[in-house]
Batch of 3 targets.
Target 1
Amino acid sequence: MQGKRLAQTTRLPSAGRGSVAARAAADRPMWLPGATPPAHLKGTIAGDRGFDPLSLGVEPERLKWYTEAELYNGRWAMAGVFGIIHQEALGKAGLIKDIPWFNTGYELKDEFPIAAQLGVLFPLFGFLELTRYQGFKKTGECGVINMFPFDPLGMKSEKMKEREVKNGRLAMMAFVGFVVQAVVCRQGPLDCMYGHIADPFNNNILTNIVSPAGATYPGM
């Protein structure tokens, strides 16, 4: 009798843990409501929404690199989107040369010769990338030179990690949009926005895809 009672009491906690885990899984935000996350995505990574249709992160070591790569590219995208919008805004205000972001390198080739840029950028970024790679292998954290993690303002937290990943993903999507606008409309994002507001029925994604020549964006 005592053995049966002990067996019963030992089963109860495991059942309780299972129900808690089930509730936690049900409450976990997913990329698609009701979707089932793959087994290797357990919700422990910032921004994990259970989306990995190609199973790229099955191997734990590769998952670390993909997580780092997404964060790194997201940071570059945030910086790039910020720069593109502010360059165009300052150009419209007459504070700097009003040059489309995709033509800036060509238009300023005399002020900033390509050869001189390469002579500075290659060794500088080579050094920064090498130290970043070495630091990440040792610590598993992002950083700069010998600071891993790089957090001079002491803002590192789980909430900030989540926000950074979300904003990085949004910025990467925005940058892809800017590139498509540049190829199709030959305009920056602000000019495209102004054109759409002025004539939304003729200046939109459908008219540009079907007949780019029919769009009437400013300067075209």
Note: DSSP finds seven helices and no strands in the chain.
Target 2
Amino acid sequence: MPRSVSGVEMRKRQAAHIEAPPQAPGQPRPNTCCLCWCGCCKCLWNEDRMERSERQTCTKMDSIEATEEQQASLEEVLAWSRSFELMLRSLEGREVFREFLRSEYSEDNLLFWLACEDLKKETNSTVVDEKARIIYEDYVSILSPKEVSLDSRVREGINQTLAEPSNLMYEEAQFQIYTLMHRDSFPRFLNSSVYRDLLANRRRACLDT
């Protein structure tokens, strides 16, 4: 089946997991801004910023340290089935999960999450501005073919920060995509041939040694 058709179907299925709060009847349209990166003059701004959602002290979005690692052992591959976060912290885990997501036309979810991880580590304001702009154009803009599924509240919050980007401006969106991958894609990954074949290969390697 062509990517364009399957990709649309997959986005619709994933979008069903994200509830967007309805707009109250008679609510006035916020001001529009023509300085947005998408260039569509439709980004919404409110005078009053939304209150930040309360977060746990330790979230699932702690930055991954880039480390050189050897091939994951059988024990490590087995441990992935018990911890999504542990799999994401493994270079090989991310690569094999990405391979699976590519087969479901949802690879962009992981790429967005990784781009946000990279942005959070950046301290140079000029680089932050550039990386934040690229992330918006690639994964948030409604004009992008790689747009990820975000609810309207989170998307509006991002639009409000476009004038003054920060390395944490996508934090809530990143957590939403993390949750989507964890609850929707990860269970199917564990039952996929991609993961089962990797597990079988590691078991054979252990028997051969």
Note: Confidence is low (pLDDT under 50) at residues 1-5, 19-63.
Target 3
Amino acid sequence: MTDLVAVWEVALSDGVHKIEFEHGTTSGKRVVYVDGKEEIRKEWMFKLVGKETFTVGATKTKATINIDAVSGFAYEYTLEINGKSLKKYMENRSKTTNTWIMTLGGTDYRVVLEKDTMDVWCNGQKMETAGEFVEDGTETHFSVGDYSCCIKAVSSGKRKEGIIHTLIVGDREIPEAVE
């Protein structure tokens, strides 16, 4: 019998991670799985509320599951990433990263640009990149398989919008994904 009480999907630079939490409300058992791998297992805990902290992904991002009593024997489970609620973290992340999903030669790729560091990730791997200044902004070049890729960074001309990042593979512009 499983005591699975919560499942979350968390999009990080190195991929989308699945976090599952089992909570035995009679035994106090707590089990955390990240991408199907057991990260934490605690049996026979007398305190049924509290928190479990662990890391997720290649960048060892800090995650915490909070267990709170709502009423009687009902519990609420919330996930925090880097100290922020999952919703806040994802809202902030959409401002600090760009994500593109594409298929090249029959293979699916997820490319993520971290705007603060200009790091580029593809399917969980941090890519070797070469940056250069061009007339209207910058270009960050990298390869995916046999394909040469370029992320162009150009000013929008509007302060609120800031810099516009565009992924170009060959001579094709890849539309940005919404995660």
Note: Helices lie at 86-96.
